[in-house]
Amino acid sequence: MCRDYIRQSTFYKAMEEMYDDPHRVNNAAQALDNLKQGRNDVEEYITDFKHLALESEWNEPALIAQFRKGLSEALKDGLARTGVPPSLDKTMSLCIEIDRRIRERRAERANNHQSTPIRRFVPPPPSMSSIPTDNDEEPMQVGAARGPLTEAEKSRRRSLGLCMYCGHAGHQVRECREKPNTRMGKPLALHAFVSVKSICTAMSTHLIGPLSLQWDGRITTLNAMIDSGASGCFLDAEVTHSLGIPTTSKKQPYPIQLLDGSSPLSGPVTKETTPLIATIGKQPQDILIFDIVPSPLFPAVLGLNWLRRNNPTIDWTNGTVTFNQKDFSTTSEIPQTQIHTAAMCTEIPKAYQDLHSVFEKKGADDLPPFRTYDCPIDLLPGAPIPHGRIYPLSEPELESLKEYISENLKKGFIRPLTIVQWLVF
């Protein structure tokens, strides 16, 4: 018995010498010293910090000091105002709370700026076509953002201390009021299904409606701004590319002009879509050609040529549009947006009629029966529980997660468990 124990101990020692890190504590201490939050969420920084802290063998005062050292400047300022708690766990909890308040305040500032009315007037061009008949610049507004900056312009703004977004002095890009409120820097998402009574929404000073586009047997619905100040009909370049809408080069490229008289950095309009079948609400189908421009705020713009062709009655106060005495219904907000393609079939092909039960949802409410060839998952007693990262979720994501968990708890697919080893998080 003693001999077996010695052999086992010798084996473990040999395995440690072969595979274990002999400098684990020193390496963890060095990694802690180099760990910074940077632009990451504080939850991710806390997760990485705890993993290294377990290996470093530092005492709590040293860990608190190092944790504060690696925080972002905004959280350091928040701790300076509130004070530092005596324990590491309380300090981490306070940082999470401060970080959430900072993000909420940023969202409030963005919403307040977005609700500020913008007065504008652009004289309409005489031409009704989306293709101009001369080389004169046409005044229009497509979104509130310009294209990407050149390297020379970036260097100039950095050297003069100007905002990297609007180019004005006195503030930085994170404080810029002209920066659009787009999530994670991406354009607004596309619109989803709409009912037969389409939705027209008066958003701030803009009139927004769902526009249905069809091409090559596909259909999609997205948000379109009805803009009498725009000279033609426009689609956002990134939206056009992501949806696979066919485009072609314009026979006669032309420059566009923003409200301040300047030209966008994207340059002249050089591409347009092929003829698309366009429908808004109960309006009869129309054939439109859209010019392709960068428009991160609005995926589509219906301009003056569309208004002249259809001649709708617009109630700007109530946000309604009338075609042939049939009003659009008005709503206070735009629904969550998605992409819909007509390629989705509602009927099962004849070749798969014998597999009809596979396509029924009721079968998904029951767990499959146990079979003799099921692979077992053997749990090792005393084995360490693996740990993972904590990913911050938005409110809609949290609601979806709660709904998913509640639904599967009722079905019996999952069971509530309590993990004792909480320190890994």
Automatic annotation (TrEMBL):
Residues 107-152 are annotated as: Disordered. SUPFAM superfamilies: DNA/RNA polymerases, Retrovirus zinc finger-like domains. GO terms for molecular function: nucleic acid binding; zinc ion binding. This is CCHC-type domain-containing protein. Keywords: Metal-binding, Zinc, Zinc-finger. The keyword Mitochondrion does not apply. It comes from Leptobrachium leishanense (Leishan spiny toad). It comes from the Eukaryota. The keyword Transmembrane helix does not apply. Pfam families: Asp_protease_2, Retrotrans_gag. Residues 163-178 form the CCHC-type domain.
